[in-house]
Every structure is written in structure tokens, then in C-alpha cells.
Amino acid sequence: MEIRASPQPLVPAAYRKTPLPPYPAAARAQRLEGLVVLSVLVGANGRVVDVSVASSSGHAVLDQTAAGAVKTWTFAPAHRGARAVESVVEVPLKFALGRE
Length: 100
What we know:
alpha+beta; three-stranded antiparallel β-sheet
């Protein structure tokens, strides 16, 4: 019989510095709105390694603006025990205009 230690649970990454993107002027002029969901690979140092669009808003300008902003974000990295590890975080960003 072989007994193996179970892996320590993963404590997920958490938001740290997350400045929101400005609403793109072209999107505002066209009254474009939408929800972008990004898949973000967070490194063991808390910095963004890669960003991809998991679910598009339907408007490339909003998707690109969201991805560009998230690339500058920092996170508290995920941990497995005392060790920081890479992880993937799903980040939703909603672009909505006020009702004027």
C-alpha cells in the first residue's frame, strides 16, 4: 500500500492594483456597451504574464481596451502552502454608459 500526501489546496490570486480603463472615446461616441471576460495568467510574482479574451463584448475596441488595462494590473499571487504559484484568473469588465 502506498500513501501519498495530498497536495496542499490552492489559495487563489487576489486583486491588488486594478486601475479601471478609460471608456474609449470612439466607443462612447457610438454608444457601445458590453461585458468582456478576460482570462489572465498571473505569475508567481503577482504580475500579469498573459491576457486573452475568454468572452467578447462583441466590440473589438472594448475588448482591446480591457485587455490593455488588465496587463498593467498586479495581483497577490496564488499560493499552494507557503509557495507562490502561477494561476489563471477570470476577470469580468463591464462597459456601460450612463443613461442620458
